[in-house]
What we know:
Layout: E1 11-15, E2 18-25, E3 32-36, H1 48-55, E4 60-64, H2 83-91, H3 102-115, E5 121-126, H4 128-139, E6 144-150, H5 164-171, H6 178-192, H7 201-214, H8 218-231, H9 235-238, E7 245-250, H10 258-267, E8 272-276, H11 288-301
Parallel strand pairs: 3-4, 3-5, 5-6, 6-7, 7-8
Antiparallel strand pairs: 1-2, 2-4
Amino acid sequence: MTHNVLHSDPAIATANGIEIIYDMFGDLSAPPLLLIMGLNSQMIIWDEEFCVRLATKGYLVIRFDNRDVGLSTKFNEAGVPNIHALMQAQAQGETVQIPYTLRDMADDAVGLLDALEIGSAHVIGASMGGMIGQMMAIHHPERLHTLTSMMSTAGDPVLPPLNQEAVSILFTPVPTDRTEFIESFVQAWRVFNGPEFPVDEVRALECAEQSFKRGVHPAGAARQLAAVIASGNWKEALKSVTVPTLVIHGDADPLVPVKCGIDIADTIPGAKLLIIKGMGHALPPSVWPQVIDAIALHAVDNK
Length: 303
C-alpha cells in the first residue's frame, strides 16, 4: 500500500539532559502523536508502514529511541544491574539503587516534546512504553491529550504472573554476534506473536538486521528491565488519572496476561478497553487496521 506521507530523516534532540534520536511521519502542522516503544526495543519496532498509515489519519507521528537503546544516550557509567538481586530485594521490601526509573523515562518523553516545542500530544505506548505513558499521565497530565496503553500493566502483584517462556527471553542476555542476534530476535517474535498470527519472517529478519546495524546494547536492556522492576506497583496512582485513556490488549498475549490490561482499564476513571482476539505481545500487520482505527477514533473523540 502506497501513501504520500512525509517522513523526516532521523534527528537528535537534547531532552532531560540526554540525547534522543527520533523521526517523524506526516504534516508538521497536524496534531502530534507520540509513540513509545517497549523494553530493549528500538523505535524501528514501530513499523514504518504502521506509522505511515497512522499519519494518514491526520496526525504527525513521532517515534524515538528510549534511553539506553538504539542510538539514544547510553548509561554505561551506571554499570549492569543484578536483576535477580533486585527482584529479591523488591520481594523483601528493600530499597535498591538503580540507574533510573520509569518516571525518568517519562521525563525523557516530556523533554522530547519540549525540544520539539509541542505542548501536548496523543501518547501511545506499547508494553514498557505503555508503562512510561502511564507515568506521563500520572506526573505530567497536562502534556497528554490522550493516552493509549497497549499490552501493558500497572505492576499489581495480585495479577496473573507473566508467562515463563516469554519472561525467559527477557532474562536471556542479548547476543552481540550478528547471526546469533538475528536468530534470537526472530525467535522472540515467534513467541511474542502468540499462536494466532504466524510471524512474517521476511519482515522480522529485516527488522532484526536494521536493529543490529543501529546497535546492540545488552547492558542497556538490563538497566531498562531494572527500571521496570524497581518501579513496583503504581496502580493506586492511576486512580487519579484524568487523561482520556484507551487500553488495548490481546487476549493471547504470551508475556503480559490480558487481565493486566483489564486491570488498567478498570482502574483509570472512564478508560475504554479494546481486547483484540488472537493478538499476542506484538503488532502484526493483520491487527494494524483495528489498532490504528481505535487510536485515531480515541484521539478524535478527545481533541
